[in-house]
Amino acid sequence: MRKFEIAKGFEEKDVVIPVRATSKSAGYDLRSLETYTLKPGERHTFPTGLKACMEDDEVLYIFVRSSMAIKKGVRLSNSVGVIDADYYSNPDNDGHIMVSLFNFSDKDVEILAGDRIAQGIFMKYLATDDDVASGERKGGFGSTNK
Predict the structure, then answer these.
(1) Which CATH number belongs to the domain containing residue 99 in this structure?
(2) 138: in domain
(3) How many CA atoms lie within 13 A of 129 on its CB side?
């Protein structure tokens, strides 16, 4: 099962379940739930109200939309977001996907609620033949390293 769902606590918000723009698009557009003006050199984390369910050997990569980078001078704070399958429904934040943006331009950038700010791409991944991963996710961001 691979799909987007509304994260707990966001059921009454204007969350839009992502869809691909065309049949050959790889990415699913993620939208901001809030309006915020990013100052030059500022970073801000935007809620999407979404979580993603996927197979155990899949990952959801989050990339900035090219129009955000080229037209507005905005990039993801962490270059590429990595959403692991076990992030889904974790006890800390139910797997809520948030997008951290950084304004590397010299102008204010206004992000409006409902703006498409990033794109998510589901992909399969491989593990080494001698993989012995035994850790267990205990929560949200960085929880496997606690």
Answers:
(1) 2.70.40.10
(2) no
(3) 0
Which single residue is written with the structure tokens 């692991």?
84
Query: In angstroms, what CA-CA distances link 39 with 73, 77, 102, 106, 126?
Result: 11, 14, 9, 8, 39
Q: Are 111 and 101 in contact (CB under 8 A)?
A: yes
d(CA 4, CA 85): 12
Using one digit for the tens of pLDDT, what is the confidence trace for 76-127?
999 999 999 999 999 999 999 999 999 999 999 999 999 999 999 999 999 9
Q: Which residues contact 56 (CB under 8 A, 6 or more apart)?
A: 85
Residue 103 belongs to some domain of the structure? yes
- Whole domain around residue 22: which residue ranges? 3-126
Residue 92 lies in a domain: yes
pTM of the model: 0.89
Nearest to 40 by CA among 121, 110, 89: 110
Q: How many structural domains compose the chain?
A: 1
The two structure tokens encoding residue 59: 């990952």
